[in-house]
Amino acid sequence: MDSNIRVISTSMVQAENYHDEQPQNIDLTPWDLQFLLAEYSQRGLIYQIPQVPEVYDQDEQVGNIVVFYMKMFLSSTLHYFPPLAGRLSAMEHDDGDTVSFSITCNNSGALFIHAVADGVTTSDIMQPVYIPSVLVSFFTLINGVKNYEGTSNLLLAVQVTELVDGFFISVSVNHSMVDGASFFPFLQILVTNRLRPYSVIQTTCFPPRFFQGSYQLPHSPSSLLLSSKL
After folding, report:
1. pTM
2. For 202-212, how does the pLDDT look when each residue is reduced to its tens digit (9 = 90+)?
3. H helix intervals, 2-151
4. Of 26, 103, 212, 218, which sees the most CB atoms within 10 A?
5. How far apart are CA 69 and CA 6, in angstroms?
């Protein structure tokens, strides 16, 4: 597998319909603070691309279509998960020995990356017994970042990487504010439900414990261009 990862563009995506003139601050609990020394949580979904439906311009590159919609879906999803578009801050107290961390829900935005993996196919990712080394490049800019470094880094990064016959969607999020179980509600709304533009999704967002409820893993979307191979 001969690969060359090229970053096409980077941009900031904010939550749609944001009107909060006074950003809300959410203090991290002792449970959240224990993850400060850990690294960002990362998840990825891989898709094959079927034939482009006639409704789309046949001369338009499929990757550009996917990126356009994923940025729109991310903005819509952040409306329900506003802290993911916020920023982490640390405050030193007067005693000199205590520091508290909080999330400012100011809609500063999440990082969105569009990249291309030249020469990499979906089978190169799915068939190996061990995780292929090229996967590290699908999580650009957030690899190795500790959660406490979120004070100077974004809390959420989404990367869409075009493959020869598909694409890979990677999501990196600060583990101090989102644990493994609560990652999946965000992924489900971002990748599955938000591919159904006429469905109305109402979900409880943030405190207490930010995410609530029980969700299944993202399934193969039944609309648009996407055919999951997971």
Report:
1. 0.78
2. 443 443 444 33
3. 30-33, 62-78, 122-126
4. 103
5. 20
